[in-house]
């Protein structure tokens, strides 16, 4: 025992050895820092830390950011939708709740994923932990959201192969059967889309359009919804474009609502006149989600999509100078690049709708085949549309004044909006129908007066030329 005790080094010897090793380490580190370039040192250090953490840590974390390159990350969206189904009955300490349904304040609020709160899930016996993180810059110039999905390291491949498709399919099923639709508008100050519940009740059943147009639209939309394999096979982006044109008040907005309700798509309503330039437009449009409608109303008033007027050389010079002084907004080429250019492939199952009151003012490039798949004329009332409106608003199939009113519809131009306004003037059926008849008779008188004035003007012009 005594001999064993004598073999134990003294404290002074241990201290001397420690001092020598520390000095040697310091010398080696200085040599390493002097000889090895900084980039190589950082690389070696990172590899060492990775090796250290992989050896001692048993967990693996997937990071799912809200943005993927320029586009929204569909995996992030799917995770957000899927996790809301895991919240009821969850043992988590917090749940995000809220509602923007102003028509029913007492309705049960929706559930959302709170930030920095662990949500536990299980997949085929594998324990999983989700956490939503949020980072915002000090000057509020950008924000970043991302999920952490943590599992045991040995299940990494299985989670990637089986669990990701599982929650993506679950989310897609939920979105296809969602009850609430939303309409989004772009907030230029916040640089983000702001949403509100879309509670427009117009459907193809209530829309006052000709049966042929109704059948065409429904068949086209249903074919588009089932066309994923077709678009992939022919090498085209899975999107559809509609140009709605016609006089104001002929139901263009109602047609958009009917399409959204039929397809169960959210609407992104873009006021294109407020967009600064093509770069901002690209960011705005790539932030929209799949299974949605991009609506650009009054396209003839935005970008440079309308015919440019003839200008003199002096005016051209002034325009070029003004171009440098002020922001002229987006270009037609920038818009078309998203409609059918390379950027149109950023997303799928999207419908793009342009509306205009003046199709003749649009640049021919916008009307070229392939840009807008269908050009739909939303015209003045026909006898069929008129009767449809009367049935809906007054709930009657016949009236003694129907015949004279239908004859007047063929003689004067009256919009569905004007007819609806007259039918809503009174709850008394006779008063409402008489008011509509009087309104249309006045329109006929004004039309005849305008025709006489135009004829007199033409006669005077002819006499002046003679």
Automatic annotation (TrEMBL):
Q: Which InterPro entries did the record assign?
A: AAA+_ATPase (IPR003593), AAA_N_dom (IPR025753), At3g28540-like_C (IPR058017), ATPase_AAA_core (IPR003959), ATPase_AAA_CS (IPR003960), Mitochondrial_chaperone_BCS1 (IPR050747), P-loop_NTPase (IPR027417)
Tell whether ATP-binding is among the UniProt keywords: yes
Q: What is the lineage of its organism?
A: Eukaryota, Viridiplantae, Streptophyta, Embryophyta, Tracheophyta
Q: Which cofactor does it need?
A: Mg(2+)
Signal peptide annotation? none
Keywords linked to the UniProt accession:
ATP-binding, Hydrolase, Magnesium, Nucleotide-binding
Source species: Capsella rubella
Q: Which reaction does it catalyse?
A: ATP + H2O = ADP + phosphate + H(+)
Residue span(s) of domain AAA+ ATPase: 238-382
Instruction: Give the span(s) annotated as Disordered.
Output: 447-466
Which GO biological process entries does UniProt record here? response to stress
One Gene Ontology term of the molecular function aspect: ATP binding
Q: What is this protein called?
A: AAA+ ATPase domain-containing protein
Q: What is stated as this protein's family in its record? A: Belongs to the AAA ATPase family. BCS1 subfamily.
Cell membrane recorded as keyword: no
């Amino acid at each position: 025992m005594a001999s064993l005790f004598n073999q134990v080094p003294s404290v002074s010897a241990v201290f001397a050895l420690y001092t020598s090793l520390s000095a040697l380490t310091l010398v080696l580190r200085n040599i390493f820092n002097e000889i090895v370039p900084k980039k190589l040192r950082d690389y070696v250090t990172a590899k060492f830390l990775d090796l250290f953490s992989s050896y001692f840590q048993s967990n693996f974390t997937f990071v799912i950011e809200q943005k993927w390159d320029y586009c929204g990350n569909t995996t992030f969206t799917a995770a957000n939708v899927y996790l809301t189904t895991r919240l009821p009955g969850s043992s988590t300490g917090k749940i995000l709740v809220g509602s923007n349904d102003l028509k029913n304040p007492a309705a049960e609020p929706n559930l959302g994923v709170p930030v920095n709160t662990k949500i536990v899930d299980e997949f085929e016996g594998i324990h999983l932990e989700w956490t939503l993180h949020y980072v915002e810059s000090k000057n509020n110039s950008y924000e970043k959201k991302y999920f952490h999905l943590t599992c045991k390291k040995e299940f990494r491949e299985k989670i990637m192969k089986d669990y990701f498709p599982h929650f993506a399919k679950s989310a897609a099923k939920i979105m296809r059967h969602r009850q609430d639709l939303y309409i989004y508008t772009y907030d230029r100050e916040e640089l983000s889309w702001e949403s509100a519940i879309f509670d427009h009740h117009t459907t193809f059943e209530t829309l006052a359009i000709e049966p042929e147009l109704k059948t065409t639209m429904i068949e086209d939309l249903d074919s588009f919804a089932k066309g994923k394999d077709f678009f992939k096979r022919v090498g085209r982006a899975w999107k559809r474009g509609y140009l709605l044109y016609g006089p104001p008040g002929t139901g263009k907005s109602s047609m958009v609502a009917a399409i959204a309700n039929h397809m169960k798509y959210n609407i992104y309503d873009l006021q294109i006149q407020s967009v600064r330039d093509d770069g901002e437009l690209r960011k705005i449009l790539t932030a929209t989600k799949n299974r949605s409608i991009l609506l650009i109303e009054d396209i003839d008033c935005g970008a440079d999509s309308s015919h440019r007027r003839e200008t003199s050389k002096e005016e051209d010079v002034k325009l070029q100078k003004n171009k440098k002084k002020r922001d002229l907004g987006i270009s037609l080429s920038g818009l078309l690049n998203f409609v059918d250019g390379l950027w149109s492939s950023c997303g799928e199952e999207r419908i793009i709708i342009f509306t205009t009151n003046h199709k003749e003012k649009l640049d021919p490039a916008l009307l070229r085949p392939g840009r807008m798949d269908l050009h739909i004329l939303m015209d003045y009332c026909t006898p069929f549309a008129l009767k449809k409106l009367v049935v809906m608003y007054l709930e009657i199939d016949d009236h003694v004044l129907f015949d004279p009113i239908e004859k007047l519809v063929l003689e004067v131009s009256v919009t569905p909006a004007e007819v609806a306004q007259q039918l809503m003037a009174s709850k008394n059926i006779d008063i409402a129908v008489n008011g509509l008849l009087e309104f249309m008779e006045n329109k006929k008188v004004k039309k005849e007066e305008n025709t006489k004035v135009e004829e007199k003007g033409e006669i005077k012009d002819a006499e002046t030329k003679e």
